[in-house]
Amino acid sequence: MRSCFLLAALPLVHGVRIIQSNDDGWAEINARTFFDVLDKAGQQIILSAPAENQSGTGSSDATPTTVDADGCEYSSCPGGSSPTGANATDPRLNYVNSYPVTSIKNGIDVTAPKLWNGAKPELAVTGPNVGSNIAIQAPFSGTIGAATYAAKTAKIPAIAFSGVTGDPTAWNAPVPLHSQVYADLALNITQTIVNSGAPYLPDNTFLNVNFPKAEAGGCDSASKFKYIFTRINTGLLSARDANWCGSTRLPWEADLILFRSSDCYVTISPGDANDKTTVNDAAVQLQIINKLKPILSCLP
Ligand SMILES: *[C@@H]1O[C@H](CO)[C@@H](O)[C@H](O)[C@H]1NC(C)=O
Ligand SMILES: *[C@@H]1O[C@H](CO)[C@@H](O)[C@H](O)[C@H]1NC(C)=O
Ligand SMILES: *[C@@H]1O[C@H](CO)[C@@H](O)[C@H](O)[C@H]1NC(C)=O
């Protein structure tokens, strides 16, 4: 009887090893809320993110330095702290006083092997960013910079998440509605990719995921959203896309996020980690569509 109970209480899977980063800083509540839902879902998760807000720093990379006299963002570490550090009671929560790319690199090369007996992450997630990262915003985004570092340089499949709603908020404030909704949506996409089996994504690709507004009375719970497969740029002059939803031209993520926000569409675009634009190869697009099929919808 007792052993039956114990067995039932064990998680069904041990989860995959996931490294998380962002560009708003390790103490931003969007990232912490996503960390918590991944943890509760049974995934193995390590956060390694900048000590300060590094929004808009793209793919910059530099050796971490001692934290300045003001301390980490939202007073999440004292002034003069060491260049890298962890939460005093949870070693899975780590800051790196440098850029997003440096922080995910340190997480992949140093922190993860230390906590996982030498093993490296199997999947990388970044964000959810405070603010969208669509179309021409992509090259400047540290959230996408960290994801493309993982996919291209570290050869770890990566997903970048960004959400329209919200202002910078400290990790220890009450969890805002949008942070919870975005975390739930990001979890659903992450689990869908994990369930699709390894390799989780084709080589050198990442997913650029954007969430529309999430506000009370509107798109206010994960179940109200639909997931649409889109492009980062319009593709006017590029080869035809995969044959999907009765068309060979995928919708543009910016159209859905900027102009149809009240329709609750989450956009998922296949990203080329070499140049942060759309994967134009229809065969590669189709591989990704097949992985996401359990959750994808077509536009009406
Ligand atoms: C560190 O982790 C503890 C326990 O999870 C939490 O209460 C505290 O707020 C965290 N502090 C920071 C800066 O992450
Ligand atoms: C980070 O900086 C950007 C612009 O540099 C700003 O828009 C954003 O609100 C800041 N975020 C935080 C967490 O302070
Ligand atoms: C994702 O959400 C949909 C409903 O929106 C649900 O049917 C599905 O089971 C979820 N998938 C995962 C892997 O959580």
Automatic annotation (TrEMBL):
Q: Where is this region: Disordered?
A: 49-69
Compositional bias per record (Polar residues), positions renumbered to this chain: 51-66
* UniProt cross-references to InterPro entries, sorted A to Z: SurE, SurE-like_Pase/nucleotidase, SurE-like_sf
- Alphabetical UniProt keywords: Hydrolase, Metal-binding, Signal
Annotated Survival protein SurE-like phosphatase/nucleotidase domain residues: 18-217
Q: Does the keyword Transcription regulation apply?
A: no
Determine the domain of life of the protein's source: Eukaryota
List the signal peptide residues: 1-15
> Can you provide one Gene Ontology molecular function annotated for this UniProt record?
nucleotidase activity
| Similarity annotation | Belongs to the SurE nucleotidase family.
The protein's name in its UniProt record: Sure-like protein
